[in-house]
Design goal:
- The chain is mostly helical and about 475 residues long.
- The chain has one domain: Amino acid/polyamine transporter I (Up-down Bundle).
- The chain contains 19 helices and no strands.
- α7 crosses α14.
- The chain is globular and about 60 Å long.
- The relative contact order is 0.20.
Length: about 475
């Protein structure tokens, strides 16, 4: 099928390998601590200050809440073990995109890259930018559109920061992650040391939330829990830039999950200690309420600033990793070759960052128009996210069969049981994200369908791997 997509592809294919090759490739510039900071920074974001209320509202007891967060950590660790094998066997800036390409071909990986560029990553950046805007606007208001102005400013500033170079981006990430983790520890300390015992009227009085919780599905609880854990897989997008990647990537993923699980368990135990189950289910701004009880309104102001920093931390890490998929897309598809240019001086894909920032700004504009908030963006991204998560898990089985001779520095333990558990969990979350959500999910699926239409317009002869990239892979 000919058209505006296929024609530029045929004209620029011969130029694509030259321009991307001339512009350089990722170099190992990231340390072990940088990758852990990026991973923890993405996962431990604004979600931990919002979803515990939803978890408690749908749980039947405090023990159920703690069990759910523990199960979330175990499921994430299982997934991390699967990704560790893929990342150490096939270190590449494209991450999941690269694994899906090797396992299923360029048509599916194109659809994945489109999804990250239009739904998954850019939607996450816009969501986190709005969270930052909400709290920054509360502390330093800029008028009626304060939140949107701050959100747009955050997207522009973080994109510009990462354009200046990977070292500046990761240094900022390390600092923000430290502040974020220290802030969570402050809440935990306030809950256990300073915060008063929960008000009996709050913990014992029956209300709609507690009545609903007694009949709630544990599966629905896990939707919220695993959403809060999501993002640890982003570490694989910097695997090509990690020093000693074949030795350290698996350890970085495992350490990150253990740190995240410990923080989540502690902070939720602290919430329950200070507010009780019904109190945690009742208050949407849980962290602010804990600090308000501990030290008054100044505590609530501190936590507002902390949540703003947390959102900014996750947004910065998402900007770093999201641009790497766009870069990989440009390496393989000549029509998008401008995305595949790697700036060796800055150590970053500048064009990919610019396009990603532009799409995120469009979503900020959409959010300003609709202003339906946190839940809608979760609906928008979740089905698409879990669909490709499931396919990445399946790709581990496919690549074990297709490329048995590949050197695997790390092999997932208890194969095939471990990746099977990961795939079944992803399939269940895909079902749940469609069954328990509304119009936002349909919009996300519709945007993915637009990518499928673009795929039909691409000349099949152009869906072949870049020969230079494949030669490099075989030499590794």
């Amino acid at each position: 099928m000919s058209g505006s997509i296929s024609e530029p592809l045929s004209k620029s294919w011969s130029e694509g390998a030259v321009t991307t090759e001339a512009s350089g490739v990722p170099r190992p510039a990231l340390r072990f601590v940088d990758v852990v900071a990026i991973t923890v920074g993405i996962v431990v974001g604004a979600g931990i200050f919002r979803t515990p209320q939803l978890v408690a509202a749908n749980a039947s007891s405090e023990a159920t809440v703690m069990l759910a967060w523990a199960v979330g950590g175990v499921v994430s660790l299982v997934g991390a073990l699967c990704y560790a094998e893929l990342a150490t066997t096939y270190p590449h800036a494209g991450g999941d995109y690269h694994y899906l390409t090797r396992a299923f071909g360029h048509r599916l990986s194109f659809l994945f890259a489109w999804a990250r560029m239009s739904v998954i990553q850019t939607g996450s950046i816009a969501l986190l930018a709005f969270v930052f805007g909400d709290y920054a606007g509360h502390v330093f208001p800029l008028g009626g559109y304060s939140s949107s102005l701050y959100a747009a400013l955050a997207v522009v500033a973080l994109t510009g920061l990462n354009i200046t170079g990977i070292r500046q981006g990761t240094l900022t990430q390390n600092i923000l992650t430290i502040v974020e983790v220290l802030g969570l520890l402050l809440i935990i300390a306030a809950a256990f040391i300073i915060a008063p015992t929960p008000d009996p009227l709050v913990t014992n009085a029956p209300d709609a939330a507690s009545s609903a919780a007694s009949a709630a599905s544990f599966g629905l609880v896990m939707v919220f829990v695993l959403f809060t854990y999501s993002g640890w897989n982003e570490a694989v997008y910097v695997s090509a830039e990690m020093r000693g990647r074949r030795r350290n990537m698996a350890l970085a993923l495992i350490v990150s999950i253990l740190v995240i699980t410990a923080l989540y368990m502690l902070v939720n135990f602290a919430y329950l200690h200070a507010l009780g189950l019904e109190g945690t289910a009742r208050f949407e701004t849980i962290g602010a309420d804990v600090m308000r009880r501990a030290v008054g309104e100044p505590g609530a102001l501190i936590i507002s600033m902390l949540i703003a920093v947390s959102a900014l931390t996750s947004a910065n890490a998402t900007v770093i990793t999201g641009a790497r998929t766009n870069y990989a897309l440009g390496r393989d598809f000549p029509s998008f070759a401008f995305l595949g240019k790697w700036n060796e001086r800055q150590g970053t894909p500048i064009n990919a960052l610019i396009v990603q920032g532009a799409v995120a700004l469009l979503l900020v504009g959409l959010g300003t128009w609709t202003r339906k908030g946190f839940g809608t963006i979760v609906e928008y991204t979740a089905p698409v996210f879990w669909f490709f998560f499931l396919l990445t898990g399946i790709s581990l089985f496919v690549l074990r069969r297709k490329e048995p001779e590949a050197t695997r520095p790390f092999r997932v333990p208890l194969y095939p049981l471990t990746p099977l558990v990961f795939c079944l969990t992803s399939a269940y979350l895909l079902y749940s994200s469609l069954a328990y959500t509304g119009v936002g999910a349909l919009v996300g699926v519709a945007v993915l369908a637009v990518g499928a239409l673009l795929l039909v317009m691409i000349n099949p002869r152009q869906l072949q791997p870049n020969s230079d990239d494949m030669k490099r892979e075989k030499m590794k």
